[in-house]
Task: structure prediction
Amino acid sequence: MSNVIIFIATWCATIIEAIGISLIALLAGYALFNAASRLLKNEEKDSIFQDLRQLVGRGILLGLEFLIAADIIYTVAVDLTFESVGVLAIVIIIRTFLSFTMEVEITGRWPWQHKS
Result:
């Protein structure tokens, strides 16, 4: 495979990973800032805690989607072996499980269930 394609794919995967990590960090920071400002206004602590969990959870879910995309790009374009595809499959299964369980934590229902 061409060195240019490998370079571009590696660069794209790295940028997408950085976006995923940044999203998680920035949304967690925003959630903490939001919770702190609401605490200073003496709002109800249970409501603040629930909102904080939801914002952090949504940030993690969004960041995980970008991290999965980066792993797919890197594996398919740069390191396409049976071993790397197997590792990618395991990583995607783990991240999908995390996404589903976090969705249940955030919304109280499975992603395929309709809103009641």
Q: What stands out?
A: The mean pLDDT is 88. The radius of gyration is 18 Å. The helical segments are 3-40, 45-77, 82-107. The chain has one domain: 3-107.
